[in-house]
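Suppose you are handed only two things: the residues of a chain and a line of SMILES describing magnesium ion. What would the bound structure be? This form records exactly that question and the answer produced for it, so the two can be stored side by side and reused later without any lookup.

QUESTION INPUTS
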Amino acid sequence: MIDVPEGLAGQARLGEDWAAWLDRLPALTATLLAEWSLRPDGASMHGYCSLVVPVSSPDGPAALKVTFDGDDESALEHLALRRWDGAGAVRLRRADPRRRALLLERLVPQDLGDAWDVEACEVVAGLYGAIHVPALPQLTTLASVVEKDDARLADLPRDAPLPRRLVEQARSLAADLLAPDDSRPVLLHGDLHYGNVLSGRSDDEPWLVIDPKPMAGDRHYEPAPMLWNRMDELVGSSFDSVRDGLRRRFHTLVDVAGLDEHRARDWVVVRMVHNALWTIDDARRQHRGLERGERDWITRCITVAKAVQD
Ligand SMILES: Nc1ncnc2c1ncn2[C@@H]1O[C@H](COP(=O)(O)OP(=O)(O)OP(=O)(O)O)[C@@H](O)[C@H]1O
Ligand SMILES: [Mg+2]
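ANSWER OUTPUT
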């Protein structure tokens, strides 16, 4: 029987649907192991929403990933991985989308969390070239996601803890970014941060992406998570050090990937304002004030949005 790691079991506090999935998870995993002729081969790992079990399979070492099935977030992960077919990304061996189960090539679970941040940005920008292939028709479009968030932004109360000027700016930039143009939509990873890049399968492919939340859209959307993650280490004696650190990351991503600086910057602003919006909306839906951590996160979103602009 597979034990659910403590960190994942704790997600039961997120709601009844999470608790029910976590209850089913050991039996579901056992069934998948039996059906796919797998044997556990090491300690289970986890992220925010999934259990990852190292396994041995008839074809060699692999990793079984079983993800929370109560929202749409992970529903299309298999499509992106299959489309990449191992180029720049972990290889998918087998998938059961209904049960949100994936059998993945086993990688060394060493991510970019400990690398020098600028070097990590170089690695990630280098991976954009491999993964930003023409999008698949089945994917959610970036435009549909951004339009939904923009409608929520329009409903934000005027006293929300987000500068009005920034809200208006994000709305106007989103409208410009979504205006039809000649560029073909690409397959976006959607959540490409330090923790979602693992040590690769060979010296020729030293790093590979995992864990896509794929969408079809503008490749300039991709950089923002490399800015808002690992911000703590940029905090020095002055605001300038955070700002400079964020700008250094941003320019590394733009230069190495050959992105249009203005488009990339505008998407960062839109994404950061939408991130802050989700946090504000969560608290509003639960009829409560913002917690300390949530306020800090909103401040962080504003810092990133400002840092890329001046
Ligand atoms: N193919 C793999 N080989 C080895 N380890 C893996 C593999 N896939 C995932 N892992 C490990 O399991 C962890 C969780 O995986 P993943 O990021 O896919 O899950 P998640 O729950 O979607 O994460 P997140 O918290 O980013 O939403 C990774 O950080 C990594 O340590
Ligand atoms: Mg992850």
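WHAT STANDS OUT: Residues 47, 195-196, 211 surround magnesium ion (ligand 2) (CB under 6 Å). The CA atoms of residues 92 and 104 lie 5 Å apart.
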